[in-house]
Design brief:
Layout (H helix, E strand, L loop, with lengths): L1 H7 L2 H14 L4 H14 L2 H14 L4 H13 L3 H14 L5 H13 L3 H10 L10 H14 L3 H16 L9 H18 L17 E5 L5 H9 L4 E5 L3 H7 L7 H5 L3 H15 L10 E5 L7 H7 L4 E6 L2 H10 L14 H22 L2 E6 H6 L1 H11 L11 H7 L27 H4 L3 H10 L5
Parallel strand pairs: 1-3, 1-4, 2-3, 4-5
Length: 458
């Protein structure tokens, strides 16, 4: 019952079922393990670890629990604890599974000991790695090739990684094509009305207007998020469904023409849903600027503008080919949007359509947008963030330079950048695409418009 409730997305009901199972059978290791997985998905990491450890008390040689503890520690940047639990597993288990060998290799990779990480990963057999972790195994192999400057092998391993994702049960049913077709349709709708008259909505001064942090995935939004949430007067709400729930109240197939003609009552109801959902996540910071950070809200700029006519937008930019390549190299948590990030051809087209939505929306709605380029941010963080704070009408705070401490305190960061934002700002990710120029050259024609527009070169 607990597994069924978790699959439905009802985490609380799942946890209740696991608790009932444990009342009936207190030494039920699987129930503790499954409850830990659900608590991890909720973001309750300490309770998740406790639940996994309860499973190990009942069953000391329970490899699944060790694997899941390793996963939590690695994704929450607790590398010391990761090393310790790997050592414990080596003592407790008669056979050390290849999944745990993978986490040990990850530990040494993240400790910059690439040589030993390579030795460990070479000893693992992909056929002995659980299906859910095989993409991670292939990604680590690819990253090791990259750091060895063997870029052809790295590219090929990333190809394998994405094929592994496409063939996974998690990928099936995510309706990537449906999502992409809707994006194309949105672009066409904007093109159809771009030259027709549009009456700007008047802002209600009583409405608290959030700021929207948008961009293409892998454009530095998680770094920006972590720096900005360090500010005493900024709340960043990371990738929550406030906007999608507000939109859902207006209908599942609402067109842009329909959006532009929404009544005041309809808008008020949608805003009420948005703020009710926001209330679940906003902290108690005073004087607050609330930033809704969800990069692909870029495709929903028309409805954002209609709900909040004076909204400010922070547009995170990075060289288009770096954003595209990095998206292809990551293991995103799959949903209809992120299921489009496993094939380079599709990501290139997705980038163009998403940026076209923003371009047409800026022309039609005269948006208030502040652009910040990743490459400029890593060269002079203080200057770029100071300019951004001026846009937000806030002052610089010296604590912003210690943003890594904020990252450490966040637990699991639900983006692929979780391991990067705890590091000092580094410049090696800028223009990484040039190392993969040959397989990317065929996309130059499609991308040239955007590199020119955003001040980059090919």
């Amino acid at each position: 019952m607990g597994i069924a409730q978790k699959d439905k997305g009802d985490q609380e009901a799942a946890i209740d079922c696991y608790k009932q199972a444990l009342k009936i059978k207190p030494d039920y290791a699987d129930a503790y393990n499954n409850m830990g997985l659900t608590l991890k998905d909720k973001g309750n990491l300490e309770a998740a670890i406790d639940s996994f450890k309860q499973a190990l008390k009942v069953k000391p040689d329970y490899a699944k629990a060790y694997k899941n503890i390793c996963d939590v520690y690695e994704k929450s940047n607790k590398l010391t604890e990761l090393s310790e639990v790997i050592s414990e597993a080596k003592i407790a288990l008669k056979e050390f599974p290849d999944d745990l060998l993978l986490y040990e290799a990850l530990y040494y990779f993240r400790s910059n000991n690439y040589e030993y990480s390579e030795k460990l990963i070479s000893a693992a057999n992909i056929d002995h790695i659980g299906l859910i972790r095989r993409p991670l195994f292939l990604q680590l192999k690819a990253k090791l090739h990259h750091y060895q400057k063997n870029y052809k092998s790295a590219f090929n391993s990333f190809v394998e990684m994405n094929h592994s994702v496409i063939n996974s049960s998690d990928y099936k049913g995510k309706e990537a094509q449906v999502f992409f077709d809707e994006l194309i349709n949105r672009v066409q709708q904007l093109k159809n009305i771009i030259d027709t008259p549009y009456s700007q909505s008047l802002a209600d001064p009583s409405i608290v207007t959030p700021t929207f942090l948008i961009g293409f995935p892998r454009s530095g939004t998680t770094l920006l998020d972590t720096i900005l949430r360090t500010h005493s007067k900024i709340d960043v709400i990371e990738e929550k469904a406030m906007l999608s729930k507000a939109q859902l109240s207006l209908g599942t197939k609402i067109s842009i023409v329909d959006i532009e003609n929404l009544t005041n009552e309809e808008l008020a109801n949608a805003r009420e849903i948005y703020f009710k959902e926001m209330g679940k996540f906003v902290s108690t910071k005073s004087g607050g600027c609330v930033i809704d950070k969800l990069p692909l809200n870029i495709k929903d700029v028309p409805i954002i503008h209609k709900l909040f006519p004076t909204a400010k937008f922070i547009l995170a930019l990075r060289h288009p080919l770096d954003s595209i390549l990095s998206s292809w190299m990551q293991l995103f948590r799959l949903n209809p949007a992120m299921a489009n990030m496993v094939e380079l051809d599709r990501i290139v087209d997705f980038y163009g359509e998403a940026m076209t939505v923003l371009e047409l929306s800026e022309k039609r709605y005269s948006l208030n947008v502040h652009r910040i380029r990743y490459e400029d941010l890593v060269l002079d963080m203080k200057l770029e963030i100071s300019n951004l704070l001026m846009f937000l009408e806030l002052d610089w705070e010296n604590e912003l330079e210690d943003y890594q401490e904020t990252a450490f305190k966040r637990g699991i960061i639900n983006t692929p950048s979780y391991s990067q934002v705890i590091e000092p700002i580094y410049k090696t990710a800028s223009y990484r695409w040039e190392k993969y120029r040959k397989p990317l050259e065929k996309y130059f024609i499609k991308i040239e418009k955007w590199t020119t527009k955003f001040g980059y070169e090919l």
